[in-house]
Every structure is written in C-alpha cells, then in structure tokens.
Write a structure and sequence with these properties.
mainly alpha, Rhopdopsin 7-helix transmembrane proteins, 74% helix
C-alpha cells in the first residue's frame, strides 16, 4: 500500500490508500444505513424545494433570502459530499480509499460544515440590523452587501480548509493506515503520521475556533444586542413581533451547534464507545441539513405565503388546461 520516497535524507512515506474502519461490529447496522439513505433523499427534496421556491417567487428575491438560499445550497452540497460516500464505503464494504480521494473527501465535508456555521452568523447579522436599526435596514442590508459577505465567507473558508488539508501532504505515514472514523476526518488522519504533527494540531485547533467558537460568540453577542434593544421597546406586542422574526434562526442555531457541543464536551469529559461516537457524529453532520428547510417552511410566514402563491398559480394553470380541452 505504501509509496516510499526519500525526502531531506529521511524516509518519507505517502500511502496509496487509507482504510476507513468506522461502524465496525455493530449489530443491525444496515438499518442505520437505510435511515441515512432516507435522510439524504429528504434532504435533497427539502433543500431542492426551498432553492426552487426562492428562485421562482420574486417576493423572496431579497437579501434575507439570499442568505437562506446559501444555507439551503450548502446543506445540499454538504450532505451530498458525505452521505453517498458513507453508504458506498460501508454498505458495499469499499473501505479502502485512495490518498488523494481521501484528502478531497476531507476538504469538502469540512468546508461545507464551516460554510453552514458562518451562514448562521450572516443570518444573525441580518436579524441584528433588522431589529436594532430598522429604519436603516434596507440601506445597510442590500443585495450587494450580502453578496460581498457570502463571497468573503466562501473565499476565506476555501483558503483556510485548503491550507489545513494541504498540510497533510507534509506528513509521512509509516505506521497504521487505518482511519478510525466514518470519513476522512482531519484529526484521525493526521494522528496516523509518524513525523511532527504540531502544525496540523494547531490548524485543527484553529478550525475548531473558526467552525464553532467564533461563530457562537458572534451569534450570542448579536442576540445580547437584540435583547438590549428590545428591552427599551415599551410595547410588549412589538417585542413579541420582533422575536418571532428570530425564531427560525434560533432553531437553526440550536440544531447546528447543540449536537456538536454535546459531542465534543462528552468526548472530553468521559469515555464514549467509538461506534456510538461515530453514529452521533454522523447524525450531527446530517440531521441539521434535513431539518433546516422544514424549519424555514413551517416557521417563516413569507415562505408559507410563497408556497400558497405557487400552489394557486399551479391550480389556475390546471384549470385553464382543463378548460381548453
């Protein structure tokens, strides 16, 4: 399996393949794979529907729904990067993965998870301006400003994740090639190396900060400002109306960050069976993308109105078609 080259007078080993050991010796695991297949199908349908709805209904062509569109797109891409490959690897027992394919797999899964996190930050910014500066909202939150923010997020995260994945190439893998994960996760891969991994460890720590800590600090700070602004509002009805516009976003934040937080805290404070940890981690990566479009469809008035509008147009077209016949 190993391809060995000489580098700086030391033996440098780059493997041809890695072996993914996830979900080993779990009874009835095929039911979990069937569940993942269902999750993926529903994720594609839900996010595909939301993307189509935002594209087709002109009333949703606003800066706020540009952010929602970005969220649905990254949910769809993130699930597509992960779930089909997980099913192919473990359902059909194709656990060996080429070295370059492993690094690509690592990049796309971590990248789309990072974009999801920072899209939630962008949504929080939108709510902050809408509630704290309502009279200036349309001059601050414009299509141009949201495009610039989202473009910066994508370019910045591509640079960071590409650097992190690229640094794996400097590692020599002269010991085990068994990755103790359900995908080519950064930590389980770089820990297999037999040369200095301190730079990779630092990048992994930076990623935790970029993916979880900094976005959470931004979102919490945003809602502190929102609650302070609302506390100065005399009308109780106005407060409730303003908070109602934040409900969908708060649910998405909880769905995304709570499972990640629980998984990491549990891993640091107690022993978790590796298989239980992997199943929990798989659900953490996949369930938010399934629930996001459902939350937006059920909790957002504009989306419900857009659905009704499309349904009415469809009904009228059907009636016209029947009348012509």
């Amino acid at each position: 399996l190993n391809k060995t080259t000489t580098m700086f007078n030391n033996t440098f080993v780059r493997p041809a393949k890695f072996y993914l050991s996830g979900f080993s010796n779990i009874p009835h695991i095929r039911y979990f794979y069937a569940f993942l297949c269902f999750v993926y199908i529903m994720t594609v349908l839900g996010n595909g529907f939301l993307l189509s709805l935002i594209s087709l209904v002109k009333t949703l062509h606003t800066p706020k729904y540009m952010i929602v569109f970005n969220m649905a797109l990254t949910d769809l891409c993130g699930s597509t990067a992960l779930i089909p490959k997980v099913l192919d690897t473990f359902l059909f027992d194709r656990r060996y993965i080429l070295y370059d394919a492993c690094l690509s797999y690592m990049f796309f899964v971590i990248f789309f998870a990072s974009v999801q996190s920072w899209t939630l930050v962008t949504m929080a910014y939108d709510r902050l301006i809408a509630i704290c500066f309502p009279l200036r909202y349309h001059s601050i939150v414009t299509e141009q400003s949201i495009t610039a923010i989202l473009l910066f997020v994508w370019i910045f995260l591509v640079s960071v994740i590409a650097t992190m994945v690229g640094l794996v190439n400097r590692l020599s893998f002269c010991r085990s090639l068994v990755v103790n994960s359900f995908f080519c996760d950064h930590g389980p891969v770089y820990r297999l190396a037999c040369n200095d991994t301190s730079l990779n460890y630092n990048m992994a720590s930076a990623l935790v900060a970029i993916l979880i800590i900094i976005p959470l600090i931004f979102i919490i700070a945003t809602y502190v400002c929102i609650f302070i602004a609302l506390s100065r509002t005399t009308s109780r009805e106005e407060r409730l109306r303003a908070l109602k516009t934040c409900t969908s976003h708060l649910i998405l934040v909880v769905i995304f960050f709570l499972p990640i937080g629980i998984t990491n805290i549990a891993a640091m404070t107690s022993y978790i069976d590796p298989n239980a940890r992997m199943i929990n981690s798989t659900l953490t990566h996949t369930i938010p993308a399934l629930l996001d479009p459902i939350v937006y469809a059920l909790k957002t008035e504009e989306v419900m109105n857009a659905v009704k509008k499309l349904w009415n147009i469809r009904t009228k077209l059907l009636r016209t078609d029947i009348a012509k016949r």
